[in-house]
Amino acid sequence: MSEFFKQVSRRKFIVTAGASASAILLKGCLGNPPEAGGGSASTSSSGTGATAVPVANISPDQKPETTKVKLGYIPIVEAAALIIAKEKGFFAKYGMPDVELSKQASWGSARDNVEIGSAGGGIDGGQWQMPMPHLISEGLITKGNQKIPMYLLCQLITQGNGIAVASKHAGKGFGLEMASAKGLITQLKSSTPFTAAHTFPQVNQDFWIRYWMAAGGIDPDADIKLLTVPAAQTVANMKTGTMDAFSTGDPWPYRIVKDKIGFLAMLTGEMWRNHPEEYFAMRGDWVDKNPKATKALLKGIMEAQQWLDNFDNRKEAAQILGGRNYFNLAPEILANPFQGVYDMGDGRKVDDKKLAAYYWKDEKGSVSYPYKSHDLWFITESVRWGFLPADYIANGAAKAKELIDRVNKENIWKEAAKEMNIAAADIPTDTSRGVEEFFDGVKFDPAKPEEYLKSLKIKKVAI
């Protein structure tokens, strides 16, 4: 068995055990998952009285093959477009009134549920960290390594994440630049290693910790301890001292600050401005069977993303998301971060709309469109840390690009955008967003992923 599969096997146990424990906490904090997250299109189950949008006059050639689908989500701001599309009636508007949103106890639960599909009591798709759709398609994180083709259909959000650090480390050099904290972490290594948690191994929130640490000269595999903790256990684990840092989406980092048990060392939007975060993806067989329903779902999500990017709507969005059937928390925990306003918890204040979460359009252009160049960065980072073999990036990343072409269905996004008369200027003409630059000056050129890997001082791959 390869080291990759050993890691996945060990971490599956952590996630499964964590999911069992988190179910109790989730019931108290977020509702009892997994469960339907919303009521009918005309009634807001969150108690906010959201008004449904009238069903559009759908032409026969666009009428969905089915009105029913079951989508999984995790209660963090990345899920906002799915919830708003349900609660504001945007799914119903495009002929999908019977969308069921199912709250997942953990990312491991979401993976397990998409494996069995809604016919087996699971889900048809939903919200995902990257590159989970690719790993599931390759059978790298599924039971028995079963390959379950997934189709990535749109990006849900940029930014909206942070890394929180326990209060006991305040004033010890923890910030965007980590070089000044390196001495402390080295000192802790020989006794009680600095422990940083994420919500699932080898995906987004693991990568943010790794990049942040490595940029400061800290090897995340040798100098600290990494573990998997479901988002809902964040506050409890920080209180008990079982972890020193946590990487996840709002509202959890801010909850740690509000509960005065930690501070925000940095926002991921500071590390990589307008970075891709989480995505909407479905089982490939569901999409192949229901191509018109797939586009109807996309249209509902895209309209919700546009609604969310009107900052005047974000107070209402916080009310809806904070409802007991969704996040079950005080709306003010969401309201300020939604406006780019953060109390970092250590005396620093951030008030910058450019660092808020975006759903439809940010400084670099489209948020919703799934750029293939972003898929390639996540796969390149997977190679960097030994999660995928180096041959994915060899020969001009031929193997990675073949996988991306199988999973990323940006063409379906474009078809849906044109059918709903999205302005041509808002429909990207290139599958690459171009060269990306990080806070430490490192650049990722999608045309040269091997050069990016060579430029990185800390990595597990020999290149």
Automatic annotation (TrEMBL):
<dbReference type="GO" id="GO:0006811">
    <property type="term" value="P:monoatomic ion transport"/>
</dbReference>
<keyword id="KW-0472">Membrane</keyword>
<keyword id="KW-0813">Transport</keyword>
<keyword id="KW-0406">Ion transport</keyword>
<keyword id="KW-0997">Cell inner membrane</keyword>
<dbReference type="InterPro" id="IPR044527">
    <property type="entry name" value="NrtA/CpmA_ABC-bd_dom"/>
</dbReference>
<dbReference type="Pfam" id="PF13379">
    <property type="entry name" value="NMT1_2"/>
</dbReference>
<feature type="region of interest" description="Disordered">
    <location>
        <begin position="35"/>
        <end position="61"/>
    </location>
</feature>
<dbReference type="InterPro" id="IPR006311">
    <property type="entry name" value="TAT_signal"/>
</dbReference>
<keyword id="KW-1003">Cell membrane</keyword>
<feature type="compositionally biased region" description="Low complexity">
    <location>
        <begin position="41"/>
        <end position="52"/>
    </location>
</feature>
<keyword id="KW-0732">Signal</keyword>
<dbReference type="GO" id="GO:0005886">
    <property type="term" value="C:plasma membrane"/>
</dbReference>
<protein>
    <submittedName>
        <fullName>Bicarbonate transport system substrate-binding protein</fullName>
    </submittedName>
</protein>
<comment type="similarity">
    <text>Belongs to the CmpA/NrtA family.</text>
</comment>
